[in-house]
Design brief:
Layout (H helix, E strand, L loop, with lengths): L8 E4 L7 H9 L3 E6 L12 E2 L2 E2 H7 L3 E4 L5 H10 L5 E4 L5 H5 L3 H7 L4 E6 L14 H7 L2 H9 L10 H24 L3 E6 H8 L3 H6 L16 E3 L5 E4 L6 H11 L13 H6 L1 H12 L5 H8 L6 E3 L3 H5 L2 H6 L2 E5 L5 E5 L23 H9 L3 H9 L9 H6 L1
Parallel strand pairs: 1-2, 1-6, 2-5, 6-7, 7-8
Antiparallel strand pairs: 3-4, 9-10, 10-11, 12-13
Helix pairs in contact: 1-8, 8-9
């Protein structure tokens, strides 16, 4: 079946997360994505847990990519990479700004061998500014971009790091949009493009409360942005339910009073007006918690409260959601074969096209697994030429133990 990007080839130099998610999604859309790793490999290959030698973390954002390993620190490796560039539509990289130029494979050099190439660059702070050379991990960007402080303030707790790497994943999604736009522009003008995306700006962009923060205002009463006002309460079965309602607003208070059949609460001086309810939010939440503790499932909670704008969602783990009928019907997860039948389950990409195929290819490569296949296919190298490149350590591979033992 046809795929949206089946005529597109990508050389993916990225490691860790912000770049690889972009490459993974391009692959899911049908592009041929060739992951080019250095001899020490992508750092995330080392992360635990591993299944049959493959890191589950690595697999999630590198499934479907062909894997070659080239030492770009040597002139022979750089020349080999540059021989691949004419066969590529897109090159992805997430080195610090300036590294590509120092390696001799910056945008100017790429365009000498392929004028139509699109270079997608991901970095922490963007190029050509005072912070360009700073390193960037998600936790650092969260701290610098106001996320860590804002979450702590709104939760009323000491600052702490989130386990999810939001800045990385948001940046990868923005990079996907940018390189697809550049590809469309090239199709219209015939010219290549260099496009760079920063983690800091990506994080600001997806912060739906950023404009509110910039006003300097923090009103305590009224219909406020954000989801932290939605209570998460325990039900009779011991499970938790998140209710999308702010119980201090006039409508929110009315809904729960009617649902609990407690009209006397409207006469309670603690809850008389919205300012009083804000001041006594904890007491009002305790009253609601007693009511929610009488239900055994989220659907019953939602039905009891009533208005369609109020949702009750059961708190689940990722495996619990994966086990639901919805996940099966939607195909929300996909099993990736590690090479000999062992499975790592990862989230499927979210799009569904009509009469067009898209989604993660169900394989993952070890470092250098596709050296010979790719270099033979794209460059026509012979077995003896490939042997020489391996002998000179220009290319290399690291098969898992079970592959080495079977050879």
């Amino acid at each position: 079946m046809e795929k949206p990007l089946s005529d597109v080839t990508v050389l993916d130099l990225t490691r860790a997360l912000a770049g690889p998610i972009c490459g993974r999604l391009l692959s899911d859309l049908g592009a041929r994505v060739i992951k080019v790793e250095p001899p020490d490999g992508d750092l995330t290959r080392l992360l635990i847990p591993r299944v049959d030698g493959q890191s589950a973390y690595y697999v999630q954002y590198n499934a479907g990519k062909e894997c070659v390993s080239i030492d770009l620190n040597g002139s022979a490796g750089r020349e080999l990479f540059l021989q691949l560039v004419p066969h590529a539509d897109i090159v992805l990289e997430n080195y610090r700004p300036g590294v590509m130029d120092r390696l001799g494979i910056g945008y100017d050099r790429l365009t000498e061998v392929n004028p139509g190439v699109i270079l997608g660059s991901v970095s922490g702070w963007g190029h050509n500014n005072a912070r360009s050379n700073q390193g960037a991990f998600a936790s650092a960007i969260h701290a610098e971009a106001g996320v860590t402080e804002m979450v702590a303030r709104r939760r009323g707790e000491e600052p702490r790091n989130d386990p999810m790497s939001h800045s990385d994943t948001y940046t990868g999604l923005h990079a996907l949009g940018a390189v697809l736009a550049a590809l469309h522009l090239r199709n219209r003008t015939g010219q290549g493009q260099k496009v760079e995306v920063s983690m800091a700006e990506s994080t600001l962009m997806v912060n739906d409360l950023a404009a509110i923060e910039m006003t300097g205002q923090d009103p305590s009463a009224g219909f406020k942005g954000g989801q932290n006002w939605s209570p998460v309460l325990r039900m009779a079965n011991g499970r938790y339910v998140s209710i999308t309602i702010d119980i201090t607003t006039n409508d929110g208070f009315r809904y729960i009073v009617e649902a609990m059949e407690r009209p006397e609460l409207a006469e309670d001086p603690r809850f008389a007006i919205i300012e009083d309810r804000v001041a006594n939010r904890d007491a009002l939440t305790e009253i609601l918690a007693e009511f929610i503790a009488t239900f055994d499932d989220a659907a019953a909670v939602e039905a009891a409260i009533g208005p369609r704008g109020v949702l009750a969602a059961e708190m689940r783990t990722v495996p619990e959601l994966a086990a639901t009928d919805w996940a099966a019907e939607r195909g929300a997860f996909v099993d990736i074969d590690t090479g000999r039948g062992e499975i790592i389950t990862i989230p499927q990409s979210p799009w569904r096209f009509q009469n067009v195929d898209a989604g993660a290819a169900a394989f993952v490569g070890y470092r250098g697994q596709h050296n010979r296949e790719v270099l033979t296919d794209l460059l026509g190298l012979s077995a003896s030429e490939l042997d020489a490149l391996e002998t000179e350590s220009v290319i290399s591979s690291r098969p898992p133990r079970w592959v080495r033992e079977s050879e």
